Amino acid sequence: MNQSEKAKAFGALHRKGDPVVLYNIWDAGTAKAVADAGAKALATGSWSVAAAHGYADGEKLPMSVLVETAKSITAVVDLPLSVDFEGAYSAEPEGAAANVAKLVEVGAIGINFEDQVVGGGGLYPAERQAARIRAIRAMADGKGIPFFINARTDLFLAESDLSKHAGLVDEAIERGKAYAAAGGSGFFVPGLIDPALIEKICAASPLPVNIMMRTGAPDVKTLAKLGVGRVSYGPGPYRSMMEKLKQEAAAIYSLL
């Protein structure tokens, strides 16, 4: 498949009630391993890619390193690749679009794009974020790529008190509708794990909803029944592998 066909195929994998499952990767080696395991598409996690290079999350990883990582992945695995691009390394719509274009150039067919002000605290007003999405969509359309913009809201992830999540649902739904109208392809609500709230957002969202697996989250089969269209694993795979690596290394060194 060419890049446009990969983007189209990736979008088609997002089916309400039959979600695409993305076990997040962080380099070419993990991309190949997950592809060999049977994945239909690939997605990086920003936390994992940053940590693998010795950086903290939050756009601390140089963008050039992230672009090169994406390039190395598309060079070895012929599956659709979505890149967790955080805030696109720019607050301005034009800058965000120009930066995403660099990922398009190396073969990526989608991004996660969040509405939190990276490094600044708080969220962008919905219309401001929508303007940024519109700019990215216009850029991708100009290249003839049905690019998948997974529009992420950080409302739930920013609120650690789960009892307050119900009070954020209406705003999340409104943001999702605004992002859809601006050209978003999916709606990502990391941090949300309550089944009833997930179901409510899925019922109201014009876009396929992405849930991130974390402690307390429903399993994939339950998420499918709730209407979810995409399930991702965030930094979980990286943390799991690093823990296994440490345990194996510790076992070896304990014998010396």
From TrEMBL:
Protein name per its UniProtKB record: Isocitrate lyase/phosphoenolpyruvate mutase family protein
Protein species of origin: Rhizobium brockwellii
Keywords: Lyase
Molecular function per GO: lyase activity
Domain of life: Bacteria
Keyword NAD: no
Pfam family, one: PEP_mutase
